[in-house]
Amino acid sequence: VMRKSHEAREKLLRLGIFRQVDVLIDTCQGDDALPNGLDVTFEVTELRRLTGSYNTMVGNNEGSMVLGLKFPNLFGRAEKVTFQFSYGTKETSYGLSFFKPQPGNFERNFSVNVYKVTGQFPWSSLRETDRGISTEFNFPVWKTNHTLKWEGVWRELGCLARTASFSVREESGHSLKSSLS
Hints:
This protein is mainly beta and 181 residues long. 10% of the residues lie in helices and 65% in strands. The two termini are 41 Å apart. The relative contact order is 0.10. Its main location: mitochondrion.
């Protein structure tokens, strides 16, 4: 009973929708209680319906501010919607993701991400804008986890200066990229 209740507690925590999960094991009480019966009670504290975060990052000669919003357990079955926005001196990005586990088998899940990333690379006189979508399916097989992912990106490359090299100018413009992994 101890081991099974601990495994159940760990599964509940892995859902990412509870702040705290406590297990209380007690003997059965009452008129219809069995002599060797046990009551197992799970006391949970859910996360808030909306959580947010903000922070700053410094690195690679760039500073940026990151804002995030998360809606855990959005529809009551451990679904999550996450939005993240990052504004920096050379790069700006934002993304929206939706995560949906399979009921009863939370190791098997599906997620969709939509994003846009804009970056400047002054040493190459290059500006890049990526707009993309990705879908991901995670599933266990025996004792290993597997991921099947598709990603599609609309990439726009442009020159930052008239002094850009010929190879940068040659690659400028719009292109579509797709990958399966």
